[in-house]
Amino acid sequence: MLCDHKQDIDGDPPGIEDLCTTDDGAHDFVGEEREQSYICVLDPLVVPFQTDSPGTVRSTTPERGETVEITVTPDGVDYSHPEAVVSLGVADEPDCASCSSIEENYEQVCPYIHVFEDSEEYERWAESTDAATTTVPVETGVALAGAFAETLFGPAG
Hints:
By secondary structure, the protein is an alpha+beta fold. It has helices spanning 42-51, 102-109, 119-126, 138-153; strands at 21-22, 27-31, 35-38, 55-60, 67-73, 76-79, 85-91, 115-116, 131-137.
């Protein structure tokens, strides 16, 4: 996986700088203080929670190539496609020595976390994926991203 995050976290908890950024990812975070592109949609979904600042995630769907926008604010979540879902998954047969590095974990999980316009698009994608996946409503996907942010990175600040 080619991304521009810090390679070694020196035993410290990961931080916002450890997210897998890139210049031309399929997922963007746009906020007042930050605009960044990411490879994995989970990364821009954790940004509002990690930075305690609202923003919009623009995610390109893997089957149709459409853009779904998810706006996260202190008042809640709004999204552009009423039937949008978020997939969750992990590789059927993890291919890593210990899956203890950030890079190894990204490779086993991120290819299976996506935003879709609707369940039909997800089903078409899932037919050809080599992982155990499921979908959740957008609000649940965002809530999970918030929980990941809290658990992995600690409280916003």
